[in-house]
Write the structure tokens for this entry.
Amino acid sequence: MQLIEGLGVELDAGDLDRFERYLDLLFEANGRFNLTAVRDPDEAWRRHIFDSLTLMPWLSSLDADERVADVGSGGGAPGLPLAIAMPKLAFTLIESTGKKADYLRQTASALNLDNVTIVNERAETAARTPALRERFSIVQARALGPMRVALELTVPLATVGGLTLFIKGAKAEEEIKLAAGALRALHAQAVDVTPTPTGRIVAVQKQRSTPKEYPRRPGEPKRAPL
């Protein structure tokens, strides 16, 4: 709780209970298939709740009609904790694995998160769907792989001028350097690296519309990074 207070963000009454319920559902589902390697409850609060909420200062500037995409949602962080804390924003969680997408739908329903939509597609496919391509003011991702891979899976979803936010670790600056070619190809620029108690947030701004050839076919970004 002290860590959350240190972020300077405001939570509504009942948010902490819903975070706890989210973690209960995560651990319950984790017994059926792998969603998280974290087993300790205190560490889960830090890794799944607090780490997710470090994005709130970036999302707080959005208007209620703006959309946020979460790519590679897996166990639901950062998308579900942020949807709990920011009910006026609409979150689209993109997850390619069917069982994980089902878990996300069930969890969002159990938490009464009417502001959450689940898309069971690979990111490469979702970003070529007209209803999703270049439709999101902010696209966020955690544990989606190296930036030179993750950029191709996320930037096409962002609006021109929109941001892609990556939760990264201590090697964030090194990843940005290695992703210089991907940034150029996707017409994007790294504009900020913000340290947090759990890592670093890398903000990438989309400067122009994504070229039609990106993202490439499913699996290609990981097999041959830009």
Remarks:
- The mean pLDDT is 93.
- Strands lie at 67-71, 90-94, 116-119, 136-142, 158-168, 188-196, 199-206.
- The chain has eleven helices and seven strands.
- The chain has one domain: 13-223.
